[in-house]
Amino acid sequence: SETMTTNEDKRNPPLNGRRAFPSDSSNDEENEVPEMEAFGLIPRGFNPKDYLRVVNIHMFKEPHEVNKQQHHTDKYYSPKLIVRRGQPFQIQIEFNRPYNPEVDQFWLEYLIGRYPQQNKGTYIPVLISNVLKPGEWGAKIIHKENNSVRLSVMSSATCIIGKFRLYVAVLTPFGILRTQRNAATDTYILFNPWCQQDAVYLDDDKEREEYVLNDVGIVFHGNINDIRLRSWSYGQFEENILDACLFLMNKAELELSGRGNPIKICRVASAVINSKDDNGVIAGCWDNMYAYGIAPSAWTGSVDILLEYYSSKQPVRYGQCWVFAGVFNTFLRCLGIPARLVTNYSSAHDNNANLQLDFFLDDEGKLDTKLTKDSVWNYHCWNEAWMTRPDLPVGFGGWQVVDGTPQETSDGMYRCGPASVQAIKHGHVCFQFDAPFVYAEVNADIVYSRREKNGTQVIENIDRTHIGQLIVTKEVGGDGMMEITEEYKFQEGSEEERLALETAVMYGVKKQTIQDTMYQPQTDVDMDFQVQKAILGSDFKVTITFRNKSRNYYTATTYLSGNIVFYTGVTKNEFKKHSFSAKLEPSSSSAFDVVIKSSEYLSDLLDQASFHFFVTARINETGKILAKQKATVLEIPALRIKTKGETVAGKEMTVTVEFTNPLKQTLENVTLRLEGPGVLRTTKKEFRQIPVNSTLIWDVKCIPNRPGLRKLIASLNCDALRHVYGELNVQIQKP
What we know:
The protein has four domains: 36-190, Sandwich (Immunoglobulin-like), CATH 2.60.40.10; 212-507, Coagulation Factor XIII, Chain A, domain 2 (Alpha-Beta Complex); 525-633, Sandwich (Immunoglobulin-like); 640-732, Sandwich (Immunoglobulin-like), CATH 2.60.40. It is 13% helix and 39% strand. It contains twelve helices and 40 strands. A hairpin with a 2-residue loop joins strand 39 (708-718) and strand 40. Helix 4 (241-251) crosses helix 6. The N and C termini lie far apart (73 Å). InterPro entries: Ig-like_fold, Ig_E-set, Papain-like_cys_pep_sf, Transglutaminase, Transglutaminase-like, Transglutaminase-like_sf, Transglutaminase_animal, Transglutaminase_AS. One of its GO terms (biological process) is blood coagulation, fibrin clot formation. The active site is at 321, 380, 403.
């Protein structure tokens, strides 16, 4: 027997025994519906031209027209129609003659993907009726004039998010006539935080303005004692970014039928944002070696990264936590999921999820770096996305933690979330996904222990308040900082906090119990230290203070260790060791200064000019140890940005960036970047050298295309100096 192979067979992947249709996980692939679908034999005299025929479809897709205005999609730089689900939009169909409801019957068909099926929500016939039901597919005629009818079309509030193809179908006695495939009528459907039936509904208009429509934001970094901020351009409305974000879901192989569910979208996106295990968007790099890539500190926004990935399909090098979080935020806001970037200061990276970070000291009370695997990040950035959680008990909807930075695996992949912030606060860490890990990031205890010669471990000190001291995000409608620590945890030391901890332990967060007999700290002496604020390149001092509350005379053998660290708390090297003996008079306080010279640290400095100091003191009379650790960052000089001439949309203007070299050395191979959504595309310039104390001046000409308050963001990068930023708010006038 002969088998005929058609083109159709070649295009479709082979089926397996499990399903009648291949899985449909690409929004790019298409297949056509027939323009003439006959019901049987067609009589010879049949002429399609005798029947109602579609001449034109008008989509009202311009930014100033009704659809994009009502759906808050007028900022997207895209010629196609973009609407939000669960809310009516208008289209107008022009026929070859006036439409007569007595004899004519037509309907709309929305298709997505390669194998459209009605039960999967990927083939949607929309019939014309007299009334629209909220949040369900439907269409009704709102205006008839000559040969045209204007329709109001309602999409389902649970509709798949993506790019749909539109056909108009007309019924004739002998078959269905459809319009030809026409890319100009493609319709993007997005999440709708303005629609009460949508899972991402957010009821506050100012919050929607910030968490969905704002295309710039602030990243808080530095450390708990010295909070720094820099702007980040999300650029979710820029050209091709929406297509790039839809491509990420194809890359993650999320089935089309799952793309109406924000929980699934967030979970697969948290894996595909990082390049581990799936060749995702950004390759992480934390070792200060950025050969063959761009240093994480050089990026000023998400657009360049997403567009490069969309065209090359290869991971973009390099990112660290704020880069992963910045790009993730763009993805979420672009699809219409309310999102914000959050910073947790003193964030625990708990390798074995036992709710404690183990710091091991050697005989002298110095940190044993070989044994210590856990680390405290000066700060860690993640995202929160807003949605209901129908998969959890009532009360756990709202903000959910999602994290694209690859730290630990979850169900075999580097991903994290969504985890309900409310569940983390109350210790209900049994609810999916990854709540125990996030709980530890904000609540772990630091345990200092020392191994005796005979092998027994002695706990010297427990710090219950160092981790997760401050959790912040950008305020709504401004550039200030909003503290959200109490969304994550109750007041330190309160009854509720203990209760939440016991709940978390009950739900299986491992916590080692510490016998009281083993741990008896020295309570009658307090030790603390302060690090003087200093500018990069200058000397500064560390002041160690003791308060002896007893009537005894003590001596303390004190050891200060200064380390250059990555912001993740991982040590690169120890640049300062200093020991001294402190005499502590009864009932009195005493202070000791240790000077740190710039020559001691400059040669080894890393990206974030970040230090970590350990001070340990042994009270010789009792053998007890006092331990304290603190991170500190140097002041890094900023870029200055100015504009010349008038700032009017459509008119050329000049932006000037200036920088003075603060170091005692010439800066070499310096890269500057400048961008501002709606004002100019990212521009780069290389400078071979900036001598000591000299000032660089860079003029950039541009033509802004969007009026309103815009933000310009610049960064400077070279091997000796990173994390140099500048920004400027510019009011662009209407022409």
